[in-house]
Amino acid sequence: MIITSIRRTSRQNLSKVLTTMLVPSRYTIERWSYTLQRVSGVVVMLYFVAHVIETGYVVGGPGVWYVPPYEVAQRSWETVKASLKDPVFDVGLGIIGLLVTFHTINGVRLTLTHFGYTLKRPHRPEFPYEVRSFTNFQRGLFWLSISFAVFSMIYALDTLLGVFRA
Amino acid sequence: MRERTLMIMHYLTGLGILVSGTIHVYVVFLTVPANLTAWESTLSFDGFQFAILPVYRNLALALSLEILLICTTYHGLNGLRIILYELFQGRSARTYVKYALFAIGALLLIYGTRTIIIAHSIGGP
């Protein structure tokens, strides 16, 4: 049973792992990138599931497994469209834009790192134990992802709501 | 499959999302006709080149949506798998996580592909 296997991972241990995953304070900037990458990934995945369900109404909803008449599909979509007319969804889309852009550029950085690009040679740990494999290029990519993410959120909010327009 | 293969597929699907997702965002948000607001244009059912239904009717764009669906499902669920494996350790927990994610993935793929195929074949008014 899944319950017993979850119980076997003791509750204390689970909260320990969660804290390690989600609280990056007192560590280097790379730990922040790790936490943000995971949080943004999970949130975007939730959005993706909601988006697949929502776009299902373009053809008439979950009950339709045949090609419906044009008017039926249109009526179904217009109903959903009316329920989507809420600034909450626009702001949500802006946040999704922020998270996706961050996740993309930081993901490119992680892929390069995984295959050893952008890393310096390993060296003996000597005082003051600075990790020299972290290059300026890497940290630059991280800050680039942050700034692109903020920019794309502003752009999305401006396109959808016109908030930053005079 | 070996963990190394899964991770390389993770990166490849990420690249696939980058390409097909760029097409998707371009088509949805950056092709707004002059007489419509972005909100109207994004959610318009039919009537101009990049409204919802004409995008599905275009075979190349429908295929790019299918690629986006497949890549995002794999990439997202594999990412969740990595997180959940760290949270729930032990062989049986991993088995349950694996099959639960397989089930979610199958549901997403079947439902999304159904939407794309049906929307592709809806005729005119």
Q: What this model shows, in words?
A:
The complex is a heterodimer of chains A (166) and B (125). Chain A has 166 residues and is mainly alpha-helical. Chain A has one domain (26-161): Fumarate reductase/succinate dehydrogenase, transmembrane subunit (3 helical TM bundles of succinate and fumarate reductases, Up-down Bundle). Chain A contains six helices and no strands. In chain A, helix 3 packs across helix 5 and helix 5 (87-114) runs antiparallel to helix 6 (136-161). The termini of chain A are far apart. The mean pLDDT of chain B is 92. Chain B has helices at residues 3-29, 38-42, 52-57, 59-87, 91-121. In chain B, helix 1 crosses helix 4 (59-87) and helix 4 (59-87) packs antiparallel against helix 5 (91-121). Classes of the chains: A mainly alpha (166), B mainly alpha (125). At the A-B interface, helix 1, helix 2, helix 3, helix 4 and helix 5 of A face helix 1, helix 3, helix 4 and helix 5 of B.
How much is the average pLDDT of chain B? 92
Strand content bin of chain A: under 5%
User: Could you say how many structural domains of chain A there are in total?
Assistant: 1
CATH superfamily of chain A: Fumarate reductase/succinate dehydrogenase, transmembrane subunit
Note the total helix count of chain B: 5
- Major protein interface: A-B, 47 and 43 residues
CATH topology of chain B: 3 helical TM bundles of succinate and fumarate reductases
The biggest beta sheet of chain B, please? Answer: none
Helix content class of chain B: over 70%
The proportion of residues in beta strands of chain B is: under 5%
Order of helices and strands of chain A: HHHHHH
Helix and strand topology:
The complex is a heterodimer of chains A (166) and B (125).
Chain A: H1 2-8, H2 11-22, H3 29-55, H4 70-83, H5 87-114, H6 136-161
Chain B: H1 3-29, H2 38-42, H3 52-57, H4 59-87, H5 91-121
Helix pairs in contact in B: 1-4, 4-5
